[in-house]
Amino acid sequence: MSASPRPTSLGELKNAVTRGSVPHRSVKDEVRQNLMAKLRQGDTLFPGIIGYEETVVPQIVNAILARHNFILLGLRGQAKTRILRALTTLLDDAIPVVPGSEINDDPLAPLSAYAREKVTRDGDAMRIDWLPREARYVEKLATPDVTIADMIGDIDPIKAAHGGLQLASELAMHFGLLPRSNRGMFAINELPDLAGKIQVGLFNILQEGDVQIKGFPVRLPLDVMVLFTANPEDYTARGKIITPLKDRIGAEIRTHYMESRQQAMAITEQEAWVQRDQPIEVPRFVREIIEEVAFQARHDRKIDKRSGVSQRMPISVLESVVSNAERRALINDETPVAPRVIDLYAALPAMTGKFELEYEGELKGADVVARELVRAAVSNVFDGYFHDADVRTVTEWFDLGGTLNLGDGVPARDVVAQARGVQGLIDLAHRAGVTPDAAEPLVASAVDFVLEGLYSQKKIGRSDERGYHSTEPARRREAPAPRTPVLTPDDEDDQPRGKKKRYYN
User: Fold this and answer.
1) Which residues, 6 or more positions from 455, have their beta carbon under 8 angstroms from its beta carbon?
2) Distance, CA of 383 to CA of 389 (rounded, Å)
3) At what angle do helices 366-386 and 440-456 cross, to 10 degrees?
4) Could you tell me where the beta strands, DSSP code E, fall in 169-210?
5) Would residue 318 count as lying in a domain?
6) Which of 39, 43, 302, 411 could form a Cys-Cys staple with 361, CB 3.0–4.6 A?
7) CB atoms within 10 A of CB 341
8) Amino acid 79: pLDDT
9) Residues 315 and 429 in one domain
10) Average pLDDT per run of 10 along the chain, which is 505 residues long?
């Protein structure tokens, strides 16, 4: 839009459109042209959308350039709704509308009977309103109880009675969400949940660009961009998209989960609430483990892959892990707040509700499956930090009978003090990225990472009663296994009598 003052009357608007200072175009042309301008300038198209730069975003761009209505198809937690809401940045700052219009009538081309009468009555002196871009986006969550009246509209007998109107009069119409989205964007989330007969009601708007209300000969050629989201699971679990409607949707764009741990960490850091009343320092290895839990869950055969594991899981887990560390810091008067790996076990409630189990998982239980995921995630991340590290001095200390009981409530100073009694443990902790002069809570977090990593790889054991300990008694490792003589059947007859050949295993 031009920086010049906006027209305030219909006459001024006509002059501005003639001069070209105010564009007059359809919503799809508007979005297309604004997108083209952003592409030329190299602007970020969808701020906050991470990991789709080379996959989903180019397909959305193509659909917009083609002036298509489209659907985003993907599992839960793949930013489908966020992408649709971000499309509003491609709309103009504001557009002129007829004051009091329920369907955002264009003053230069009014649709509704109310707007036509007002323009005819007031002429060029008619005052105009300006509708901001935020008000031009309407979103509806599809549910089985949605009716045609909700989506398209209906006859309002009360309005007809009060105005002395016939039921067939346009002025007696109650407009649904779709007409009220005129000259904007209308998004339907979870489209398969919408009843089939309601989906049929969307045919005309997608193909011919108009709607009919309650069977009366009233046609509204709406100017609207229609967007959808759907979860593939819903095609069989709760409903389906009827074939004629799918045929009228211009593009089906598949979303996906993040392909790398780094991308997932960036999303979680952007979305999670970790700024508390006191300083918070979340070590990088803790963030990596949290993301790895989600990656492990998406590939675990005990978890239903059709349902997916949302990116909301690591976001919730990080917030819970920080909260558990915050609780420990408040009790022990520690600063900064530094989450530990063991805090993930206190965050199990943030995991178990975020995935659906297969039969094998149901037999084990969600809590057991979640603990297995944490252990596998710790093992993978631990390998990245310590794949070439010599951990024998630490494991030998435990093999000789040493134990460390370091629960999630133990103060950082006690963790560090006990760790100093284990040769090589503090050195390994520094290898995790914690400097020698770091605060005690950070050193304690690194020590906990080393111990949990060794436990996850079964190099040491851990129990609620004994804490960290050896996986087996030290004497079993020290005492060599006895060699048992066994007669070899081969060539036994060739040996001299009394000189049978023996083989030691």
Assistant:
1) 375, 378, 461, 462, 468
2) 9
3) 110
4) 173-175, 184-189
5) yes
6) 302
7) 28
8) 93
9) yes
10) 78 94 94 97 92 96 97 93 95 96 94 92 96 96 87 72 63 82 95 87 78 68 94 64 89 94 95 93 97 96 90 96 97 95 95 93 95 97 94 94 92 96 94 91 97 96 90 53 49 47 40
Distance, CA of 139 to CA of 225 (rounded, Å) = 12
pLDDT value of position 136: 97
pTM of the model: 0.84
* Number of domains present in the structure of the chain: 2
Is the domain of 308 the same as that of 401?
yes
Do 376 and 236 lie in a common domain? Answer: no
Bridge partners (DSSP) of residue 252 are 71
Task: Residue 40: count other Cβ atoms within 10 Å of its Cβ.
Answer: 8
313: CB partners within 8 A, 6+ apart: 77, 293, 294, 297, 350, 351, 354, 355
267 and 341: one domain? yes
Nearest Cα to Cα of residue 69 among 203, 197, 177, 200: 203
CA nearest 444: which of 343, 308, 299, 319?
Answer: 343
Domain boundary among 228, 254, 280: 254
Structure tokens at 307: 């349902």
DSSP conformational letter for 496: P
Residue 271 lies in a domain: yes
C-alpha–C-alpha distance, residues 183 and 71, integer Å: 19
What single DSSP character describes residue 336? S
Instruction: Give me the CATH number covering residue 63.
Output: 3.40.50.300
Distance CA 111, CA 53 (A): 39
Domain boundary (229, 254, 279) is at: 254
Question: Could you tell me if 204 and 287 lie in one domain?
Answer: no
pLDDT at 477: 45
State which H helix or E strand residue 343 sits in: none
Q: Could you give the CA distance from residue 285 to residue 366 in angstroms, rounded to a whole number?
A: 25
In a domain, 364, yes or no: yes
Q: DSSP alpha helices (H): ranges in 217-311?
A: 234-237, 243-248, 261-271, 284-299
Does 368 lie in the same domain as 409?
yes
Shared domain for 125 and 76, answered yes or no, is: yes
Q: Name the token pair of 497.
A: 């009598």
Element of type H or E holding 201: none
Task: Let me know: does 256 contact 238? Beta carbons within 8 Å.
Answer: no
Q: Is residue 505 part of a domain?
A: no
Q: How, if at all, do strands 94-97 and 129-132 pair?
A: antiparallel
| 231 in the same domain as 111 | yes
pLDDT for position 496 = 47
Q: What are phi and psi of 238, to 5 degrees?
A: -125, -15
Structure token digits, residue 465:
């009663």
56 vs 47: CA distance, rounded Å:
14
